[in-house]
UniProtKB/TrEMBL annotation:
PROSITE patterns: MALIC_ENZYMES. One of its GO terms (biological process) is malate metabolic process. The active site is at Y179, K250. InterPro entries: Aminoacid_DH-like_N_sf, Malic_enzyme_CS, Malic_N_dom, Malic_N_dom_sf, Malic_NAD-bd, Malic_OxRdtase, NAD(P)-bd_dom_sf. Divalent metal cations. Prefers magnesium or manganese. Residues 347-600 form the Malic enzyme NAD-binding domain. It comes from Dovyalis caffra. The lineage of its organism: Eukaryota, Viridiplantae, Streptophyta, Embryophyta, Tracheophyta. (S)-malate binds at R232, N487, N531. Keywords: Metal-binding, Oxidoreductase. A divalent metal cation binds at E322, D323, D346. The keyword Lipid metabolism does not apply. This is Malic enzyme.
């Protein structure tokens, strides 16, 4: 029988990290002076500028009456006598105000209601595997992917460890549910499936108090924030604050694929309104019902958010920008790269994963990057981000100036080929790609004129790689490389079946969202998934474990190299240019190690001295969702 009186040992949320790990909630030497068999409910203190004690949260923060507990702030002071002035009360003068606090045992009903600690029917026995098996059986019975998604979200809110165990053990089956394509549909229908907030919404109404809003989040040791403003959700456009599904999904992968502990992850949606008329007129829309704030109003809100993040979580919190529209994404990245640890997944993570796929593909098609010609459909974040990293790598390999390397790369946007005669009217991130050439309107004409060896779709528009386009690629390439990166599946530039059929089985194909294997003339082709999910979890782990303070392009190159090195001959024979996701945690550890090594080499790492074996160290840092025994 399940025991209802288990108390919880006071430890960090993951409960697994050693004191030397960057993932540990606090240093062992600074354990608070509360009895070790108790957890502290909702207390945490800081001092304001006048020395008053500020309580970061109070019991009313505890969700749904559950003993959702907060570790004592590791910055708590230690009095000379060794006693910890955990809440600053001893140091406060008589005139100063302090918030009263108390401790409580998480047990019984409240323990079952706490998703961090709940074990369902497994309190008395180790039954995690059986629980996973049973849940998979239930989830497989749902015919509709969105039902599976909702079942998974429900599980995440009920029993966090089981959610991660299930996701890790069934990663290839469950990734399309918690991530693209199903997460796209979930975002589109978020208003009607929404039950409880899974992340932090920060709207224009919070202007002036974002720091306080962040401090209301129950976890204090945040290491990764994924933030969106919902304006370009996958290839689905402006979904306003329904885009929250994306940061939630990305962070689930940070934990499942990259081993960053769940309590260190914070999903954020900045709500500045939406220009999506359907949402504005939808009675179930959960966000601000106004058109998007722009210009100074937008910039000020983002700036307050970025400043509050640093103030609340320190210098080394990684902020991943996700699914911002390109008119904000490039500027935000450029502006905050100088002062914050920031990473744009759509620009940088995508670039790294595509470069990895290309480096691997060259082992099949031959030649170096510089021997190839690249054509993109789509010249936004993903397109120009990938193009720039290819040019950088090409330039490093050949010593040619990056400006020369760029000349081997062409991009088409909604107005046609990007050429010098269009330069004046181009957005700044397109200008480096405005090469000398006659204007060309259509992709097919561009393909026939430029004769690329590699065709990459980053347009967000489905079925734009037509039969004629793929056939043209196959007419002058023995093995055309065709990547349809747009998400979700409905926006993919072509399907796997189309790519293989129209190229008579010669295309080397990968897509942003997964496609099932394809039979063509008796041979089975397994399309790979060219998705930044291969990169950002391991990349983030590497950044965090080395204490890196900035992201550098060379770290993206290192991640790409690490991923490309994981593709085996057996994978190539199936048509894959990426390793299967089933090994993703090992892959993430390798990526993390390479990224961390580069951070040390560049002098950007602050965790010193560097661990001797970075792969082993990465593995040792990774969160595992095994149940713990409670007293
Ligand atoms: N697989 C992966 O890991 C990733 C996939 N993606 C996917 O890539 C897609 C694009 O994302 P992102 O780059 O951020 O979006 P952006 O909005 O920044 O860029 C889209 C680009 O596509 C162009 N475009 C739009 N319609 C057409 C068309 N009919 N013909 C030619 N070009 C067109 C736009 O042209 P114009 O500038 O003229 O408007 C723009 O240059 C999305 O679907 C996204 O899901 C993104 C990141 C990662
Ligand atoms: C995968 C991803 O980040 C995107 O489609 O936006
Ligand atoms: Mg994205």
């Amino acid at each position: 029988m399940m025991s209802l009186n288990s108390s919880i040992f006071l430890q960090n949320k993951a409960g697994i990290s050693s004191s030397s790990s960057p993932f540990s909630g606090r240093q062992r030497g600074s354990a608070p002076s509360v009895p070790s068999s108790l957890r502290v409910v909702a207390v945490n203190s800081n001092r304001d500028r006048n020395g008053s004690v500020l309580m970061e949260s109070t019991l009313k923060d505890v969700k749904d009456g559950a003993a959702s507990v907060i570790d004592v702030d590791s910055k708590s002071t230690v009095a000379p006598g060794g006693a910890h002035d955990v809440y600053g009360e001893d140091a406060a003068t008589e005139e100063q105000v302090v918030t009263p606090w108390f401790v409580s045992v998480a047990s019984g009903y409240s323990l079952l209601r706490d998703p961090h600690h709940n074990k369902g029917l497994a309190f008395s026995e180790k039954r995690e595997d059986v629980q996973v098996k049973k849940l998979m059986h239930i989830i497989r019975q749902y015919q509709v992917p969105l039902q599976k998604y909702m079942a998974m979200m429900d599980l995440q809110e009920r029993n966090e460890k089981l959610f991660y165990k299930l996701l890790i053990d069934n990663v290839e089956e469950m990734l399309p549910i918690v991530y693209t394509p199903t997460v796209g549909e979930a975002c589109q229908k978020y208003g009607s499936i929404f039950s409880r907030p899974q992340g932090l919404y920060i709207s224009l109404k919070e202007k002036g108090s974002i720091h306080e809003v962040l401090r209301n989040w129950p976890e204090k040791n945040i290491q990764v924030i994924v933030v969106t403003d919902g304006e370009r959700i996958l290839g689905l456009g402006d979904l306003g604050c329904q885009g929250m599904g994306i940061p939630v999904g990305k962070l689930a992968l940070y934990t499942a694929l990259g081993g960053v502990r769940p309590s260190a992850c914070l999903p954020v949606t900045i709500d500045v309104g939406t220009n999506n008329e359907n949402l504005l007129n939808d009675e179930f829309y959960i966000g601000l019902r106004q058109r998007r704030a722009t210009g100074q109003e937008y910039a000020e809100l983002m700036h307050e958010f970025m400043s509050a993040v640093k103030q609340t979580y320190g210098e080394k919190v990684l902020v991943q920008f996700e699914d911002f529209a390109n008119h904000n994404a490039f500027d935000l990245l450029a502006k905050y790269s100088a002062t914050h640890l920031v990473f744009n997944d759509d620009i940088q993570g995508t670039a790294s994963v595509v470069l990895a796929g290309l480096v691997a593909a060259l082992k099949v098609v031959g030649g170096t990057l510089a021997d190839h010609r690249f054509l993109f459909l789509g010249a936004g974040e993903a397109g120009t981000g990938i193009a720039e990293l290819i040019a950088l790598e090409m330039s490093k390999q050949t010593n040619m100036p990056v400006e020369e390397a760029r000349k081997k790369i062409w991009l088409v946007d909604s107005k046609g080929l990007i050429v010098s005669s269009r330069r004046e009217s181009l957005q700044h991130f397109k200008k480096p790609w405005a090469h000398e050439h006659e204007p060309i309107k259509t992709l097919l004409d561009a393909v026939n004129d430029i004769k690329p060896t590699v065709l990459i779709g980053t347009s967000g528009v489905g079925r734009t790689f037509t039969k004629e386009v793929v056939e043209a690629m196959a007419s002058f390439n023995e093995k055309p490389i065709i990547l349809s990166l747009s998400n979700p599946t409905s926006q993919s530039e072509c399907t796997a079946e189309e790519a293989y059929t129209w190229s008579q089985g010669r295309a080397i194909f990968a897509s942003g969202s997964p496609f099932a294997p394809v039979e063509y003339e008796g041979k089975t082709f397994v399309p790979g998934q060219a998705n930044n999910a291969y990169i950002f979890p391991g990349f983030g782990l590497g950044v965090i474990m080395s204490g890196a303070i900035r992201v550098h392009d060379d770290m993206l190159l290192a991640a790409a190299e690490a991923l490309a090195a994981q593709v085996t001959q057996e994978n190539f024979e199936k048509g894959l240019i990426y390793p299967p996701f089933k090994n993703i945690r090992q892959i993430s550890a390798d990526i993390a190690a390479k990224v961390a090594a580069k951070a040390y080499e560049l002098g950007l790492a602050t965790r010193l001295p560097p661990p001797k074996d970075l792969v082993k160290y990465a593995e040792s840092c990774m969160y595992s969702p095994a149940y713990r025994s409670y007293r």
